[in-house]
Amino acid sequence: MATQQAPTPSWLETRLPLCAAWRAAVTDYATARDQPYLATLPALILATLIFLLLSGAVLSLFYVASEGSAYASIQFILRSVNFGWLLQSFHATGTTMIFGAVYLLLFRAILTSAYKGKGDLAWFLKLTLFILLLATGWLGYVMADGAVSYWSLHNAALAGARLNGFPGVISEWIFGGPAGPGTLARMAVFHVVLALLMFGVIGAIIVANRITAPLPGRRPVAFHPYYTSQYFAALVIFAVIFAVLVFFAPHLGENRLNAVAASPLVVPASLAAPWYLLPLAAIASVVPSTFGGIIGVIAALAVLFALPWLDRSRPGVPTGFLYKLLVWVLALDVFALAIATAAAPSLVTEILTVVFIIWYFLHFLVLTPLSTGAL
Amino acid sequence: MAGSGTQTLAQGGQAASHDASKRDFLKILTLSAGAVAAGAIAWPFIDALNPTRQAMAVARPIVNVGGIAENTALRFVWLGQPIYIRKLTAKQIADNQFVVPSTLPDPAGYTDRVKPGYETFVVVVGLNTGIACELEGNDPSDTRGPFDGWLCPCDGSVYDPLGRVRSGPAPKNLVIPPFTFLNDTQIQFG
Q1: Residue B181's beta-bridge partner residues?
Q2: Is the confidence at residue A307, as pLDDT, over 50?
Q3: Rounded to a whole number, what is the distance in Å from the CA of A137 to chain B's nearest CA?
Q4: Whether residue A43 is found in the same domain as residue A80
Q5: A87 neighbourhood in chain B, CB within 8 Å
Q6: Which one of A47, A92, B85, B143 is separated from A212 by 20 to 30 angstroms, measured CA to CA?
Q7: Residues B100 and B128 in one domain
Q8: Residue A15 lies in a domain
Q9: Do B49 and A58 touch (CB under 8 A)?
Q10: B3 vs A: CB within 8 A
Q11: Shared-domain flag, residues B100 and B173
Q12: Number of structural domains chain A divides into
């Protein structure tokens, strides 16, 4: 135990109370015992963001954000820059890790009904993080300037250019018209700006989560060292998974055709997106028109935002078995949707894709109100 | 984990100190392993900012001087500057070896201008030290001025074969770039 005598605050402390803030937030922060390891996910996401920021900063020194040159500059990073192959793999696998962590975060929030009561704001922040991550992930993917990335960017910019009115204005502002030599520079800037915005959002999530954290009860423990050590244990497990992926599966979930340089005259046989964009890409492409795609994406995210209202149970009431079962089925449904989209197009995969998408919306719009309203 | 530790401490005496030393050891071990891990992760990030081998090959080129004929100079561009590598004749050495340095505008002796062991080669940046202008005199047929060295076509400054200024507006001797002889026929710059 520390001595009871309060020390005289230092010159710095009287002007910038960092130690007091640290004590309030970490060492004197009373917490409930036996919190699950998955409660560390926001901190792990923050750690991955920092890692991505550092590796991205190094990569940006060598990356040339210009169509045609971008692919060559990545080859230069992979072949000539000291440890460039490792840093590129760090950045790509870091993307996989952060998407995995955010998907898990959303799944856990739905499963435990964390969006109810005062958790609604944290839930909206988590969805904001998810949207920012999707946008940043897609921008990073098109920055690779491979054969598939190229067409993803060109199709998106072309679709944007076809829009009228306000959506068209926004799209032109983002892409600067149909994709050309200068478009990738814009994409690189948005990639960085949205990534930095994520720091603010994840910080807000961590603060908001403390509101809904279980009450300390009669025998609380201090956050430090009890939970900091748990966080480090979680970080070690996370880092081991990360390292295994970096060294044994550095191209996990990537389209192989994207390893080839883009050609404006050749459309690759498969335009499948990286794994983390697959579910949304499937919903976006089920209605084959520009507006259909945009409405599909908005609808898929809107049902997530509407979840606090779609869940009709009162706050504090524990979720029923049926609801939890349905959430697990939803996770399988989204997973299967990704696999069906990545598979070679055929009549079977097309039918399955539509079925999985219908189930996704059915889960939120019909099954969630029914399964929670019965309680 | 923490609870069991507290109980052991409560039992007091021998067990407590034994447990504490074990804990200290584990703490040091964990911190050391963590420091090694942090260093190992930081290393690629730091090393990536070092120049690539490609950049170093450009920055530190190796030049073959075996093919340079006597009384001529090889010109090549290094980091945007013309570098002259000149092979001296016996007469040029004899003419310049014993010039008293204090009589020159920018005093420098013979040994200051050549590398020991490779005294027949003079390596200089071929830019006039007055107004920056590339010098003439690499080829025996060029105009070389009265000292058989180099001549500035712009302001008329005269240099001897060792690259020392002898007359003209130029105030300084020709700059000697950083280089080393790898062997009798190879020079590495940088």
Answers
A1: B187
A2: yes
A3: 22
A4: yes
A5: 44-45, 48
A6: A47
A7: yes
A8: no
A9: yes
A10: no
A11: yes
A12: 2
- Clarify whether residues B72 and B141 are in a common domain: yes
Q: ipTM strictly over 0.90?
A: no
Domain-located, residue B52: no
Tell me how close the Cα of A61 comes to any Cα of chain B, in angstroms: 8
Q: Are residues A284 and A186 in the same domain?
A: no
pTM: 0.85
User: Does B53 sit within 8 Å of A80, measured CB to CB?
Assistant: yes
Sheet holding B186-189, edge to edge: B62-64, B186-189, B179-181
Q: Which residue has the tokens 């009890």?
A: A226
Within chain A, residue ranges assigned H as helices are: 11-15, 18-22, 41-60, 69-79, 84-111, 120-143, 147-162, 165-175, 183-212, 228-248, 278-285, 290-305, 307-310, 321-342, 347-362, 368-373
The verdict on B13 and B65 lying in the same domain is no
Question: What digits encode the pLDDT tens for the residues A68-77?
Answer: 899 999 999 9
Q: Are residues B79 and B159 in the same domain?
A: yes
Instruction: Flag if A87 and B53 touch (Cβ within 8 Å).
Output: no
Q: What is the CA radius of gyration of chain B?
A: 31
- Chain A contacts of B44, Cβ < 8 Å? 82-83, 86-87, 90
**Residue B117 shares a structural domain with residue B173:** yes
Provide, as residue numbers in chain A, all residues whose Cβ is less than 8 Å from the Cβ of B54.
Answer: 80
Q: Are residues A33 and A106 in the same domain?
A: yes
Closest residue on chain B to A34 (Cα): B1
Domains identified in chain B, total number: 2
User: B9: domain range?
Assistant: 2-47
Which positions ≥6 away from A187 have C-beta within 8 Å?
A: A65, A139, A142, A143, A153
B2, B47, B53 ranked by CB distance to A226: nearest: B2
Q: What is the dihedral of CA A94, A95, A96, A99, to 10 degrees?
A: 120
Q: Does B48 touch chain A (CB under 8 A)?
A: yes
What is the tens place of the pLDDT at every residue in A122-158?
A: 999 999 999 999 999 999 999 999 999 999 999 888 8
Contact check, Cβ <8 Å, B54/A80? yes
Q: Please tell me if residue B44 touches chain A, with a CB cutoff of 8 Å.
A: yes
- Chain A: residue whose CA lies nearest to B2: A226
CA distance B12 to A301: 59
Q: Which two tokens stand for residue B102?
A: 């204090």
Residues A257 and A309 in one domain: no
- Strand A221-222 to A30-31 pairing: antiparallel
Query: Do B61 and B40 fall within a single domain?
Result: no
User: What's A65's DSSP letter?
Assistant: -
Q: Directed axis angle between helix A120-143 and helix A84-111, to 10°?
A: 150
Please identify which residue in the block is written with the tokens 């990534």: A195
Predicted confidence at residue B9, as pLDDT, reads: 42
